[in-house]
Amino acid sequence: MKTKLTVLFACCLLLMLALPALALAQDSGPSLTGTTWEWVQTVTPVETITANDPSRYQVVFMEDGSLALTLDCNRGFGSYTADGQSIQIMLGGSTMAFCPEDSQADIFGQQLSNAAVYFFQDGNLFIDQAMDSGTMQFRPIAPSLTDVTWEWTGTTGAADGDVAAADPTRYSVTFHDSGEFSFQADCNVGNGTYTSSDDGSLTMAFGISTMAMCPPESQDAIFKAQLSTAASYVLGDGVLDITLADGGVMHFRAAGTAPAPEASLLIGTTWQWIDLQMANVSEAVTPPEAYTIVFNADNTVNIQADCNTAFGTYTAADGSATITVGGVTRAMCPPESRSQQFLDLLGQVTTYNVTVEGWLELFTVDGFRLTLQPAPVPQPALTGVTWQWVQTVAPSETIVAVDPARYTITFNDDGSFAWQVDCNTGGGGFTMDAATNTLTIGPGMMTLMGCPEDTQDFQFQQITNATSYYFEGGDLFIVLGDEGGVMQLTAAPAAPASEPVLTGTTWQWMQTVTPVETIVSNDPASYTVLFNDDGTFAVQADCNSGGGTYTVDGQSISLGPIALTMMACPEGSQDAIFLQQLSNIAIYFFLDGDLYFDQAMDSGTMQFTAAQ
Fold first, then answer.
1. Which of 609, 588, 593 is nearest to 500 (CA)?
2. Enclosing H/E stretch for 604
3. What CA–CA distance (Å, rounded) separates 167 from 249?
4. Whole-number pLDDT of residue 457
5. Strand, coil or helix: what is 377?
6. Do 513 and 593 fall into the same domain?
């Protein structure tokens, strides 16, 4: 009996000792992230589709939920969500190169978009598609130093400090199996030789290089100088770290694995349409300022489509985007207008990208690419603005205005200026040359009242020593002579705009949005309503006019019977629609200066704008 207990105890002990090893073996299985997976084949219920070259079709799942794609001759990005074994893949934008005739990029992308479940077997990745329509098989690729274009993202721990690459796509290196490497250092390219060993050692010797003069902010010299001191490297999937002789580490990413652009980059910019690419054909769009879109923070869009304007909504995240065009005016644009094409293409957008130049690319479901650039930001004008003094930065000190509103200057178009110097006011003359930004001011005259003890009138009057001016960030900077420093002035806040009121304004009907359609006014000036303070209103309904009485309680409004002339209006008149909807209004509110009427029973919303 004792012997059996001893054997049983020994077995239990061995099992307990084996448990950590078993757990470790289970944890060491393949992982969805951190590996480059190349497509081998897809088995469907009716056929097996084999990748003609797996290296041309790859996917990398990132820890942050983004993914990078090799789509034959193109590079793309997207996002994914994984919960247990379930997976959803959303493709984002991609480059638009014209791939060979045998390309399977469309098949590869379509099947990825249909992913439903993933699992591993024998180290390979399998993705089951929705509706049992097939199973994609992938195999892992071991990280390789060679034949990958490595983009420099920055350096940490170097003797001269940390540095981030301003644009990784402009600084790259590619190691070749021949022992040579090629590089791009901003506006220059070149080559060299390298040696590496299995223990991770690395030395690099630069060869020939172009000698173009790159922009002043270029990091080409830093990039080449650091690479020339390479001592060792560590390779991961999609990342490369090169340790330098001084202990610093250069960080690289594989080309094409940049994260999807943040959706916040879209917001607040007026984007002008400049180009349309269809397959390998590119068409310039003119004039760009006639076709614009603005993405707002509340997920609405404002669109200018030549002679028409429109509004709508959008969603954008991880490189995917949709745009829903709402109400559109119906003006008749010139025959050569691309108004309708622009609106149609916006409604077909599926993905977006922001280039290193700061341009916006919108990709449609049909593979078209719209390229848009930010509208030029107009420079502030020197004249016609009341400028408040903020501070003067002199060689020996910085003088900050105690109260900028007490020190102002306004330059007029006739060459005169008016200023407020604390408790005194006055003016004088000035000359300027916009071509050279030269500026002379004064001398100026002013009243001679005694100002409070904290006055800075003397410091502000140094503005009469002006020699030149420039703008930065919307502020005005005036350079003073005799090393007097630079005065900074900002535009005085505009007087708050008065809130619109219901009465006293002729309101023109623009459109009505109902749950099933948008009815756009064919002539807003022919459909108007004017509310008077005495509780009466006047209405114009195409060729007929009339009026009645109304009552308001808070935001609620109701109209009494409308007395109207009975003329027969031309064919196509919207008088009946307008009057019917106006008689049904229940609530009013203002938005961005326009007047809106919600109709009873949630049957629609009328939009009016003030007549000019």
1. 593
2. none
3. 18
4. 93
5. coil
6. yes
| Amino acid type, 152 | W
Question: Where are any strands of DSSP class E within 186-269?
Answer: 188-196, 202-209, 230-236, 239-244, 249-254
Pairing of strands 135-141, 281-284: unpaired
Q: Is residue 13 part of a domain?
A: no
Contact 372, 363 (CB under 8 A): no
Residues contacting residue 452 through CB under 8 Å, at least 6 positions apart: 422, 423
User: Could you tell me the CA-to-CA distances from 297 to 57, 167, 223 in Å, in that order?
Assistant: 36, 27, 38
CATH number of the CATH domain containing 113: 2.40.128.270
Among 491, 515, 548, residue at a domain's last position: 491
| The pLDDT of residue 6 | 44
Angle among Cα 542, 548, 549 to the nearest 5 degrees reads 140
Domain that holds residue 303: 263-374
β-bridge mates for residue 174, sequence order: 149, 182
What Rg do the C-alpha atoms of the chain give, in angstroms? 34
Q: What is the pLDDT of residue 7?
A: 41
Q: Are residues 364 and 411 in the same domain?
A: no
Query: Which residue, of 429, 462, 491, is where some domain finishes?
Result: 491
d(CA 550, CA 557): 7
Q: Does residue 394 share a domain with residue 336?
A: no
The alpha carbon of residue 205 and the mean position of all alpha carbons in its chain are separated, in whole angstroms, by: 40
What's the distance, CA 315 to chain centroid? 12
Residue 546, domain member (yes or no): yes
Residue 549 near residue 557, CB atoms below 8 Å: no
The tally of domains found in the chain comes to 5
Residue 362's pLDDT is 92
248, 207: one domain: yes
Is there a single domain that holds both residue 474 and residue 570? no
Instruction: Please list the alpha-helical segments (H only) found in 28-155.
Output: 105-113
Residue count of the chain, please give it: 612
- Contacts by 559-565, CB closer than 8 A, 24 or more apart: 559/583, 559/585, 564/539
What is the rounded distance in angstroms from the CA atom of residue 405 to the CA atom of residue 387? 9
Specify whether 544 is located in the same domain as 528: yes
Q: Are strands 230-236 and 239-244 parallel, antiparallel or unpaired?
A: antiparallel
CA 112/CA 61 separation, integer angstroms:
12
User: Alpha carbon of 333 to those of 291, 340, 366, 473, 540: distances in Å?
Assistant: 12, 10, 26, 37, 26
- Are both 355 and 410 inside the same structural domain? no
Mean pLDDT of residues grouped by 10 in the chain (612 residues)?
A: 42 40 45 88 94 92 84 85 91 78 92 94 93 93 86 92 88 94 93 92 94 86 95 86 94 81 88 86 90 93 92 87 86 90 94 84 86 86 93 91 95 94 94 90 89 93 94 90 89 78 93 90 94 93 93 92 90 93 92 90 90 84
pTM of the model: 0.47
> Nearest-CA neighbor of 156 among 253, 251, 228?
251
DSSP letter for 342, please.
Answer: H
Q: How far apart are CA 440 and CA 67, in angstroms?
A: 58
Q: Where are the alpha helices (DSSP H) in 555-608?
A: 575-582
How many CB atoms within 10 Å of residue 531?
23
Cβ–Cβ < 8 Å for 521, 527: yes
Same domain, 402 and 483: yes
In a domain, 450, yes or no: yes
Whether residue 498 lies inside any domain: the answer is: no
Whole-number pLDDT of residue 21: 38
